[in-house]
Amino acid sequence: MTDDSAPQASQQSVDDAPEMLIKPGQKFATPTPGDADRVFYESLYQQKPESVMAQNFVIEYGLLPDDEHKTLYKTYITRKRNPSQSISPIKKEKKIKIKSQIIDDTGGDTGFSGKGGSEGVGVGAL
Hints:
Residues 1-34, 106-126 are annotated as: Disordered. By secondary structure, the chain is mainly alpha-helical. The protein has a domain at 18-79. The protein has helices spanning 36-47, 52-60, 66-81. α1 (36-47) packs across α2 and α2 (52-60) crosses α3 (66-81). The longest helix is centred in the middle third of the chain and has 16 residues, at 66-81.
């Protein structure tokens, strides 16, 4: 006995739910407002609208209002056609020169007398 009414995966593709998709470039069904990924990417997009990662998510999941979606979709398509321009500029790290200090640890007192005697672990009780 198989149950054909088993719940589908939470992330539906375009083929699974074409009636739910109404925006160009949308690949997945729009997640619920409480979905953790949606909350993260929406807040990222609000804080850094230039974030390529956030732009891709809001386009592919159809989270923006129609007019804003159409404007951003043009950028999305341009980036998809020419991926070399989509790379974010990488900040160059400053090189810090560190002077090496070599410590001479070959000489000096190590704290051991070298005499066998009764020195050692566990011998104190004798």
